[in-house]
Amino acid sequence: MKKLREDYSMEDLEAVNLAADWSDISQGLRKDLGHQLHSQWIKPIQVGGFCEDTGTLDLYLPTEFSANWVQDRFADRLSLAWKIARSNVRNVRIGVHPGRRQVADLNLADNALGGRRAANDSGHGGVIAIANDAMGNAGFVSSVGLDPSLTFGAFVTGEANILACNAAQRMAASEQPQFSPLYLKAATGQGKTHLLHAIGHAYLSSHPRARIFYCSAERFMVEFVQALKQNQMIEFKARLRSFDLLLVDDIQFIIGKASAQEELLYTIDALLAEGKRLVFAADRAPQALDGVEPRLLSRLSMGLVADMQAADIELRRSILESKLTRFAPLEVPDDVIDFLARTITRNVRELVGGLNKLIAYAQLTGQEVSLQLAEEQLTDILSANRRRITIDEIQRTVCQFFRIDRSEMSSKRRARAVVRPRQIAMYLSKVLTPRSYPEIGRKFGGRDHSTVIHAVRLIEDLRTRDADMDGDVRSLLRQLEN
């Protein structure tokens, strides 16, 4: 394994420590504020520099609009959280990164928008993106507001998400799709926002002069209310319905807002009548959206509802391996990849975040990536993802899989049809639970710890040489972890 650079600065370590503190603070705010507010306003925050002399910490947001919003509503809470985390923080300053190009927040009622203007807010989930012939003959703005890294090429597919990915590619293809709207249903962090961005990129590739509207339902509400207050609803409606592709994320947040629901309903009807394309994403199925008008529910579900299941262990492993190409020539051992894929199961975002945190720490401290380092540095993520799998549950699952009686786990029988499943159950008990060898042995009829060690090593060896054995163990891991 190649070792990374040995020298690292105090500034680098300070950045790592700030990032770790912010991770803890952000998680706490998520519990206090709820997913909606956290995702919309807290998650896009980036930690800037900290001045020891003045005790001032800078927090940056993507736009002036979002920075002002957070300053007005969450400044005191953020300041208190940082002062608790770090006693030397005296002031928290919220603003837009000074190196970031200042772009005005989109207001659909702005008269200038109908001409040659584009708006960009790079914070996921709160973006309104427009692509048109803004640059005339000089060049075409083809990805305004869309994250350039979120493409179909970067989306790793597996059994859990292949339907949604194929449907998204159809929606972005040059030929007219057979269904519209497309409704992507997935839990937090499973890739629905990635697919929305990917559709936008692919559609612009095949329709280079297309106009795209991409936003969260919450941001749609903000723009709707602004147009209502400014008596500019006619302009709002006209421009909203001029888009060729409508992408709306987190549609569940439009719950209960009757006037906005009605406007969205009329917009959907108008765009569908003109053969335009619509894609919605939410964390629940249309029928589970409480407080949504029945007519709007029927529009949302009239096309294709593509369900994205939680990534299984094979898909999680594939995602990690795909991300490693960004860190070449860094080498990450296979046992670390297996460990992360096996233990970080809640969502893909946390999985990739765990890998990034581990590699960043290794790079900044000059350490090699190892299983021990992963266990030490990812304790917060691992503890949040760890589901309590018991030895009893493992024994029951293995017995059902091999169709043997549960009593065989503790029996003295030496028949191969009984011994091998028993050894697999011991192996899984060591892999999936924190129990020691003697504790595992006691759960298998009072066997000696050396017997358990032998079983674990034997199954590990057989998995490398016997494809059928490896397949059986993988199937059992999927059953137990899901």
Automatic annotation (TrEMBL):
Nucleotide-binding keyword on record: yes
Keyword Amino-acid biosynthesis appears in the UniProt entry: no
InterPro entries, per the entry: AAA+_ATPase, Chromosome_initiator_DnaA, Chromosome_initiator_DnaA-like, Chromosome_initiator_DnaA_CS, DnaA_C, DnaA_dom, DnaA_N_dom, DnaA_N_sf
SMART domains: AAA (SM00382), Bac_DnaA_C (SM00760)
GO MF annotations, alphabetized: ATP binding; DNA replication origin binding; lipid binding
Cellular compartments per GO CC: cytoplasm; plasma membrane
Binding annotation for ATP: G189, G191, K192, T193
Segment forming the signal sequence: none
Top-rank taxon, per record: Bacteria
A UniProt-annotated Pfam family: Bac_DnaA_C
Positions of the UniProt region annotated as Domain I, interacts with DnaA modulators: 1-111
Chief location of this protein within or outside the cell: cytoplasm
Sequence ranges assigned to domain AAA+ ATPase in this UniProt record: 178-306
Subcellular location: Cytoplasm
A biological-process GO annotation: regulation of DNA replication
Domain Chromosomal replication initiator DnaA C-terminal: 390-459
Keywords: ATP-binding, Cytoplasm, DNA replication, DNA-binding, Lipid-binding, Nucleotide-binding
Alphabetized CDD domains for the sequence: AAA, Bac_DnaA_C
Chain spans, region Domain IV, binds dsDNA: 363-482
The record's note on its domains: Domain I is involved in oligomerization and binding regulators, domain II is flexibile and of varying length in different bacteria, domain III forms the AAA+ region, while domain IV binds dsDNA.
Family designation: Belongs to the DnaA family.
Primary role: Plays an essential role in the initiation and regulation of chromosomal replication. ATP-DnaA binds to the origin of replication (oriC) to initiate formation of the DNA replication initiation complex once per cell cycle. Binds the DnaA box (a 9 base pair repeat at the origin) and separates the double-stranded (ds)DNA. Forms a right-handed helical filament on oriC DNA; dsDNA binds to the exterior of the filament while single-stranded (ss)DNA is stabiized in the filament's interior.
Assembly information from the UniProt record: Oligomerizes as a right-handed, spiral filament on DNA at oriC.
Protein name: Chromosomal replication initiator protein DnaA
Species the sequence originates in: Parapontixanthobacter aurantiacus
